[in-house]
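Title: [Solved] DNA replication licensing factor MCM4 3D structure

Original question kept below for reference.
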Amino acid sequence: MSSASVLRSRHGGEIEGSTPLRSRRGDLQFSDVNATPTRRRLLYVDEQGMPIRSGAGGGDAVHPLSDAATYSGGPTSDLPDGPRRLIWGTNVSVEESTQAFNKFLREFKRRYRMRMDGEFVAPGEGDELVYVEMLKQLRDLGTSNLNLDVQNLKSFPPTKRFYHQLHAYPQEIIPIMDTCVKDTMLEMLEEAGAGEAEYEACLERIYKARPFNLEKTVNMRDLNPADIDKVISVKGLVIRVTSIIPDMNKAFFRCHVCGHTVTVEIDRGKIAEPTVCPREVCKTPNSMQIVHNRSDFSDKQVIKLQETPDSVPDGQTPHSVSLCCYDELCDVAKAGDRVEVTGIFRSVPVRVNPRQRSIKSLFKTYVDVLHIQKVDSRRMGQDTSTLEEELAGQVASDIDEVRKLTDEEVEKIKAIAGRYDVYELLSRSLAPSIWEMEDVKKGVLLQLFGGTNKTFEKGGAPRYRGDINILLCGDPSTSKSQLLQYVHKIAPRGVYTSGKGSSAVGLTAYVTRDPETRQLVLESGALVLSDGGVCCIDEFDKMNEATRSVLHEVMEQQTVSIAKAGIITTLNARTSLLASANPIGSKYNPNLPVPANIDLPPTLLSRFDLVYLVLDRVDEAHDRRLARHMLGMYLEDGLENASGNLEIIPIEQLTAYISYARQNVHPKLTEEAGEELVKAYVDLRKLGEDVRAAERRITATTRQLESMIRLSEAHAKMRLSEEVTVDDVHEAVRLIRSAIKESATDPITGRIDMDLLGGISNSERRRKGDMKNAIISLLDDMARGAGGARYNDVLKRLQEQSTGITIASGEFADACRSLETEGLIRVSGEGARRAIRKISGF
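Solution (posted by the thread starter after getting help):
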């Protein structure tokens, strides 16, 4: 039994209980069973409601085990003379607290809060009854949870004292609040003349007040024993969510001798099993058996909350805390969410041995959750087309994903969207400390907006991705990692990781043993935690082959398939990928294609929508401007001086703009834009045409067409337009062309060749074919009988014939191996005696 139910009478010291509830969060339950409270506190409160120590304020503390009054010298009450119910160990009156909260629900107006926040209150402004309207809304929707901003309690004069009582004694005050909400709702139904059926439904429903918005958020590493059994608020990142666990509230026992039944309430997680049948005519010992299907259970879920990376002190590892959610709060938070949790900090004993009653001196702590709010004002919101089902559930649960935009902010966003230079303004405001790189910033900006996720019921894949993947490749010290860090700070549900410090299971999912149940469970990796956001991977080229192999499915199908330790499942990884890679040898060689410069397989490289080459070229004028920009950041004005006279918008406003567009704008292609996309795709394919059919090159694939569609949708979303126009397509084609021109230009011919992203250009492939034909011809001339020709002589003759083109010995060896694999020649011997012989019949 919880101390929430223990109320001591002012005369006589008898323990009284209130009306029992069928269900209550955690240990907050009323009970009719007399018991000793878990913690006997001798804390008093003063006139302002602030807790004071025993003996303070002129009162003499009395031990709670005595039959004397719980307090003396406390504040007098306006109630009639008679027994006065107090919370155990305090001088807090239940009647006074009930009256104050009832008055708050009936009479609180918005102007009280406006006055406390320092806002100007005009005559007649803010006179609406806030919680009367909220209770009417609860009645209309048929819900039972009242989200209560505790700052409103503080701003209302009659409940200032009640606010401090809630913070100090939540186990006792919150059930009082629940009772008041239900009583007020019943009174409102009587006043409205509701029918008997509606009144009975309200009488059966259990109403719960869920307080949030405490004055101070506590850091996880600052939680200490002084916070136990008090209301706290913590922020963090959800890293693990268990499945829903049935938690027993009432146990149903039946005597197997006489059939007598009895219901026992759970007291702090313990079942008080009757040792003897309570029926007078039976009294059989050890005859009571529990009946599980007649017992009362509630939903329970355990969440592991960890400090966010930006709040961890230098050189420290992140702390974590366990959360226990009950009933409606189950499945509200998912792995990867950044949440603010309001709850009661609790401690429970730990047994030395599960089979023994002895306990350890160290207690285990957890947070009994009262309210969960997903909020991070500096991060963007999620695209509703990506997480449609999850957001629908959040609307039903009244859970905020990000802070609500006011009407003034929406007007500012629409004013920015109406500017002719909105594209340049937003790209300038993205990482303003990084100089130039305009096209790269524009591509990353469109990645943050994202395309529209589409689902076609008839044929094809069940879902087409709208997320854009970008690879930044180039020389060191070109601000690639800095751009990734900036995107990570504002992206929703983003995870930042490094290639060398990541494993295959760390990116996708790994199997571990649950510390509570000792069962094998699946833990989410970086890509799954980034579902609905942007995953930033630095040092992409330094990943090992096993780690990179898991990205093929994620980047195209956006799922992670798992089949290990008896767990077979498919997890969603609907994330945009922003990666950076350094070239082999730390310097990019413009005479080699991209796959030869970076250690990436061509199949993975082709899955990126945009591949940007960020090169460090030597140019005196360019270097001078860059040096002045960097020096300007170190002067007094800082970033404003570095950015010159160009206008930029703050990061909060940029975040709000992108968040508003992702949540509210879902553009669709028009017929004109579709025709322009077809024309642009055909034009890109025409770049590969040549006079000779043998020189036909592939300059665009269907993946480039899909990339153009996604980029044009993102550009329309950036303008807050519901339609994709021809101008959006033109900008998408320009970005694609600029990226292809840099990454897929053949260094030998100077022409665009998409085969370069596959590792070998068309000209290189033709050159290797010509070399193999030349080797066969030379063998026909040089071979005498079946003796063949010496290896070095063939190489020398081939080099003499190839005027203007240098043939390396490695290329000649590759050609010989290819011919040997095809069965045309045979290479035998070693060193100077090595010979090549043509196989007869060819």
